[in-house]
Every structure is written in structure tokens, then in C-alpha cells.
Amino acid sequence: MNEAVEAAPSADSGGKTKKLTEAVIRIAGNSQDGIQAIGGFLARLAGRSEQEVMTFMTIPSTISGGPSIFQVRIGTGEVLSAGDEADVLLAFYQHSYENHIASLKPGGIVLFDSDHVEPKPEFEKNYRHVGVPISSLTVEAIGGTARDKGKNIFTLGLVAKTFHLDVPKLTKLIGERFAGKQESILNNALTAFHAGYGYSLGDLLETFAFAESQKRDGTQVVMNGNEALAFGLITAGVRFGAGYPITPWSDVMEILRRELPKYGGMFIQCEDEIASVSMALGASYAGRVAVTGSSGPGISLKTEAIGWAVMGEIPLIICDIQRGGPSTGLPTNVEQSDLNIAVGGGHGDSPRVVVAASDVEDCFYTAIEAVNIARKYSVPVFILSDQAIATRIEAFAEPKLETLFQDISPDLSPVPTHKPYDLTVADGVTRHVAPGTRIESGKYPIVTGLEHDEMGHPTGSPKLHVQMVAKRRRKLQTLASTIEIPKVYGGDEGKVLLVGWGSTKGPIREAVDRARAAGDSVSSLHIRHINPLPNGLETIFKKFTHVLVVEMNDEGLYGSGQFATILRARYCDPKIRSITKTDGLTFKIREILERAAPYVQGEAANV
Amino acid sequence: MSATSMETPRQTTVAGAAPAAPFDRKPLTKKDLAADQPTWCPGCGDFSVLALYFKLIEKRKLWHERITTVAGIGCSSRFPYFVQGHGVHFIHGRALPFASGVSLARPDLHVFAFGGDGDAFSIGGNHFNHTARKNIKMTYVVMDNWVYGLTKKQTSPTSPIGFKSKTDQWGALDRPINPMKQAISAGATFVARTTHTNPSHVLQMMEAAMDHDGFSFIECLSECVEFYEGAFDASNPRKGGAFNLVPEDHDVTNEMAAYKLADVGFPGHFGVFYKSSQPTKNANEAKVSAKLREKVAGLKDWQILQKNFDLLK
Ligand SMILES: Cc1ncc(C[n+]2csc(CCOP(=O)(O)OP(=O)(O)O)c2C)c(N)n1
Ligand code: SF4
Ligand SMILES: [Mg+2]
Questions:
Q1: What pLDDT, in 10s, does the model give residues A579-606?
Q2: Which ligand is nearest to the CA of B226?
Q3: pTM score of the predicted model
Q4: Is A134 helix (H, G, I), strand (E, B) or coil?
Q5: Are strands B269-275 and A291-294 parallel, antiparallel or unpaired?
């Protein structure tokens, strides 16, 4: 906990109240305890209080439950990651207590359910222990067995008291959450909440209060990355999607299935991922960019059809919510190991666009950007997200929907002539004309996966293949020339430049902040456009002694992660090196700093 | 799409509205419709399917902007190149999901999909089942030649046991798929069988299929003169075979009767085996949408999402 203000007396608790700028709370229990709900309430409350918030959770990959955690970091300043260490651990069971106590900062507080947890002396030395009979008090408050239901809300009350959270806002959130359910359910929830809130911790614990937020004004919305992605696609004008369920992509398709019909659209659950990508391509061909997506093995299945989209020059959005691989891999863990398949997956030379979202808010805007690139360049576009962004909750400035909403209905008015693959266009960018369009010349286009002439008719001509391959490549080169170079975070020059892509943005920036606070010359560069890359990165790299690419994948046979390999190939610069990891967890700030240390300290050889 | 609905003003949902087309035009003729000279071997059965597709378009006044021709990969699947009209040559086995995307997004278009037996029942077998059961509105003509033509004589899923191919030099071992049974059991709502040697029957089946509101499937025997010459002689009266129509007393709405009909050994029967009226996927989805849209009536699109956002604050 970062304490901003000296301890101040507080009337209602009898104890002291400390002002905080931020806190990390880890809730550990079993997945059926509804701990995600506590985390969700806290995150939402933070959003409504104009605080920054970031969450992190693990869920067991088995359905029947099992150990699960939810970590929420709330701050009045900028919150960049879910936090390496927790200030408060809420432990429901002995296993939650024993497995997660090490995640606490030294001197941190463990608030445990004394009905289930037997504190251990070796831990009591290092951490402050506060036992509350959460289970029995919940039963006392609302009856029943409290095995599964209610104690999460009781605990929320307890947390609300400890952190001086805004009770009217919280009870309103509870009301919204249970809206439409039986009244008794809402009443039970509120009773449990007040029982938790009213429980007297006595002198066991001082209480805390968050300092006034210095955040930007304006309202915030609170959601996870999958929600942001789905809503971004809707905002961009996408009205058709097709997919097959797989974790962690399924949420996106579930949201679109539920929402798209409201806009006159639809999302179809197909028999497999091949059908999904094919159906989405059919809808895109029919005139309006459609979406498909998957995770892990489902992406592999789509590659043949994506190659067709490149060849046929049909726009398409492919969401890849990365998880650990290969094969079924680590279904509920994070990895950034699909960069290669996104950039180059498939046979033949098949240039496509890859954009990586770097946080929850960015999922929303990346979706819009991806749709517009796909339309403009008639090309498939991958949106790379990952399990970490997909499931974590963040608060961000509410997008101005009225101005952002796009109408991308196709123009089906007759055209005099049309060449789908016109070679006379210098930048290679040609437009797809949807079926239903009358072409007055009477010459209609064929959209095809065979190498073709300008009208789409098959050809074996070596010359045409050379020209068409170049056309498809040139489109992406044209796009590259329009991409802005990202800004360096930290100083514009120095010893170490940490390069990241995707969900590592937050931890990398926090690592930069910490390193610079300690006087070290560390900066970072976050790249959203993976393929094509923006032009001119070399001017940035030139100003640093070391360029370290931080990514969650393997260092490969030759010592570089997937993105590092691409950067090394493009810039032929041996000072580009890798910081990779494959434990299925997001980067901790400490991990990044430790791995960068030899370069920062100058022990690593300069090249 | 029924004959009458072809005349109604066009409307699209997912993809946006199309401008109304003039209706006083002359029907398209073969001259307007022929594109590339077909690359099929002289005598290939696929020629007659193409010729009858042109006839259908002419007879039923299907304008260029009302139809889309989709195919997978195979000799037969080269079909769209030979048709002057919006067309798609997709990937092997996946014509149906692609065609489904077009059909669902664009109710103003009638989608015709063409393909071979390998495309339909081997690599695309599962898509066939699911497109049929979902009853996605389109017409699918499988040009069944009992062999892989394009890749030059390998065993196909409809090759009869004993057929000597390059991949079964001693004769095919696996029991063939019966396309009629496959379609009926998958839940196809229109199932018909015809043969390229009887043009007027092909046209008749195509018309009936087009008029069916749902997934309409035609198996059209189409001889591969190059790799399976004479395969269908027993169904061709000119070759001493028998062309037997579906018996007049056959009840096309009776699934079991249709299945029995499909069980009759070669040359079997020709005509509509099965036809039932079920809601299409297209209609079902439109219904879901209409119902949900009642709740957001009067709202602009952005305001619909704003309601979600207001709950996420
Ligand atoms: C994924 C994939 N696998 C294999 C092929 C090669 N291939 C092309 S067509 C074909 C079989 C065609 O047989 P059929 O569908 O019966 O069509 P026909 O040529 O007989 O009309 C095969 C195996 C391919 N194009 N794509
Ligand atoms: S190989 Fe057979 S199917 Fe292919 S074009 Fe020749 S005759 Fe027709
Ligand atoms: Mg065949």
C-alpha cells in the first residue's frame, strides 16, 4: 500500500485511518465461492470513483471448481499492472492461506476465515493476521449453509469497512448486479453485505481510505478485455461473426451472439473453426467486414482460409486471444506465442496485417482500427489479445460512442466496370465490390484462391504471379508508411530500451518508472503494429545501447523470442535481445528489472 | 427463393440495403452468362450442368445482381469461372460455410453452390451435415462422378467398392457414402437426385431446388469421362440403362420412405426424394433479431451500446 498521508484519526472505527494512494488486494478461495464477484464489485466501484483499477485472476480449467484467485489493484494514480505483491490477502481456506501468503508484501495483512484457516506461527511472524469467522457469520446473517453463497458479499462488506469504501455506491452496484433476480436474493445479498460491514474488527486493524483521485475527469467504464474487444467491433460496424467455442475466446463470441441481433446482425456458432472462418469470409465477401476468432488450436485450423483471404483480397477480422501452446497447451494461462502464426501462419507468401492490443482500453480501439484497415486494404487483419487482457478488468475513460460509431454498410450501387485485381494501381490497394452490385460492362469479378489475372480468372503465367505477389505485398508496405512511430516512454536515449507488444505494456512501463526512480537509464517502446511494422524504428533503437524485447514466449532455438526474431531480421542489429518467459503468468515488475539488470549495470557486453 | 420473392424489392439486413434494380430488363441469355471457355475434358458431364444453370438463370430471370455462384475445389468446382456473374472459387471442402455466410448476410441474394463428391462428402463432409441441419437457405448441386477428377483418379467417398483408382490399385475397399441417405439423415429439407444425361430433368430439379425455402441439395450424376468412363451407363437409356423416376406415389414428406428410396441399388430413382418445410436458419436468426430489436426500438445503434456501457460504470 502506498501511503500518501500520515495516519489520521477516524471517528467511526475507533482506530486510525491511513490515507492510501493505492492498494493491491488478493482474494483467494475456490472458484465457486464467487470471489470473481467480489473482485468485480471492487473494480467497478473504483471505476465509478474515477480511480484506476486493474485486476488479475486465475480460474481453474476444470468446471467443477478448484482453487482460484482474483487480485485487484486500485489506485488514485496510474495503475499499470495488477501488482507484483499484495497488501491484503483474503484467504477463505487453509490452501488459499498457505499457497498465497507468499504473495503478500512483508508486513502485509492477511484477513482469513477463521472457520477454515488455522494460522501458522511461521507466517504470523511476518504478516499481520486478522481472523474473522466469515462462514459462520454469513450463516448467522442470512441462514442457509453459506457453503457457497453469501460469504463473498459478507467479505465485500468487510473490505468496504476496512478501506472506507463508498457504501451507497457499493449497495447500488449490488442492486444492479441482482436486478431481475428474486427480491429475496437481493435482500440476502444486502443483508450479508451489511453484516460484513457492521462487523467490528475492534482494535485488530486500523482502517484505510483512498486519497482523492487525481484522475482525469469524465466518466469511466469498467470491463474486461474481451468485452472491450466485442464492443469495439460493434462500434466499428461489424454485424456478422462466426466462431467455435474455446477458452479464452468464447466470451467474445458469447457477447457478440447476444448483442449483434440488437443491431440487425448475427453471430453464428459453427461446427468448427474452419467453418467459422469460411462463414465469416462469406459474409465479408457479401459486403461487410465480418469477424471470426479463436484461441490456441482453433487459430491453427483457420490458416488455410486466411491464406485464401490474402489471395482473394477479402477483408476479415481474426481475433486471437492467445493462451499457452502448442496444442491444447495451457488453456487458462497467458502466453504471447501466437505472434508467428499470426504474422506468417499458412503456406505460401501471404502478407496479412497483425495488430496487438496492449490493454483493455486498447482492445476497444484496436478493434475499430483493425476493421478500418481490413476495409481499406482488403486484407485479413489479426487482432492479437491474450488471456491476461481478456480476463482482467480495467477502468478507462468512457468512449464517445456517438462519434465513434461507424456505418460500414456496403455500397451496392451499380458500377460501370470493375477489376478486382487491377494491376495498374500503384499502391496495390484495390476495392472489393460485393455481390449484388450490377456491373454495367457485364464483366463480373471472380474472387479466387488460385493465382489469377486482373478479373480473377486463373492463370499460370509466371509474370502475373510475380505481379500479383508484389501487389499483395505492396498493399502492406503502403499501410506501413501510414503508421505512426510509437513514442518512447522514459527518456529518448540511454542505456536500455525495453521493447514490448501486447499485454506486457503495463508491467514494462512500471519497470521503467521504477528503474528511472532508482536513477537507471531505462526506457520503453510499445509496438502495436506487428505486421507491418511502423517505419523508422531504427532511429529510436540507435539511441540506446541495448534493445531488450520483453515477451511471454520461448527464446527459441537461437535465443530470441518471436517478436525479437522479427526485429532482428528486419534491423540486423545484434544489440536487439530477448527477455522471454514461459511460466504462463504475466510479467512481474521485479522479473523484468532483474533480467534487464546486467544491461542496465553494464555487465552485459555491448555490441 | 420463390419466383414471387425474386420480384420483391431487395432488402438486406447484415450487409445493408441494396438499391432496387430495374425489372423490365430482358432475361440474361447464354451469351451474357458464358465467361471463360470451360477447361473440362470434352464429354465431361459437368458441361451439361453448366448449360442447365444458364437455362435456369434465363428462364427464371435471375439477374446478375440477384445471385452468387460459389464453389470449393475440384474439376466441378471450377464452375464459377465459367459463369459471367459474381462468383467465388473458395478452398477445398469449405464452399458450404462460405455460401452460408453469403446467404445469412444477404437475404437479397440466392446462393448457388457447386462442387464434387470429394469436396462435399470427404473434406467437406461435416460442413454438409451442419449446413443441412441448420437449413441455411441456398441451393447446393454436387456433381458426383464417383472419383477425384482434378487430382487424377483417386478414390472418392462415393467410389463403389472395387473401383480401381490410383490410391486403391486393387480396387476400393471402403463402403461408399450414399449422398441421398447422408442428406436425409443430416436433416436436409430438400433432397433430389438427377443425372447429367437427362437435361430437362436437371433443369426441373434445379428449379424445384431454387424454389425451396431452405437448404436444397441435388446430387447430379456427372460422368468423368477421363477417369471413370461409363460409371453411370446403367442409368442412361441411350447406353441400355434405365432412368427411373421417383414413383408417383412416393410421399416426399415421409423421411423413412425417402430413406428407403435412397436404399435402392444403382441406378435407383431420380427426382425429389424428400422435401419438408422447416424454418430456415436465415428466418430463425431474423426472428431473434426482430425480437431483440423491439427492446431497442427507436434507439440509434450507438445508443444501444450506450445502454450496455451505462451498466458498466
Ligand atoms: C486442403 C486441400 N487438400 C487437397 C487438395 C487437392 N484436391 C483438389 S480437388 C481434390 C478432389 C476433387 O474431387 P471432387 O471433389 O470429387 O471433384 P472433381 O474433381 O471430381 O469434380 C483434391 C484432393 C486441395 N486443393 N486442398
Ligand atoms: S477429369 Fe473428369 S471430371 Fe475432370 S474435367 Fe475431365 S472428365 Fe470432367
Ligand atoms: Mg469427384
A1: 999 999 999 999 999 999 999 998 776 6
A2: 2
A3: 0.93
A4: helix
A5: unpaired
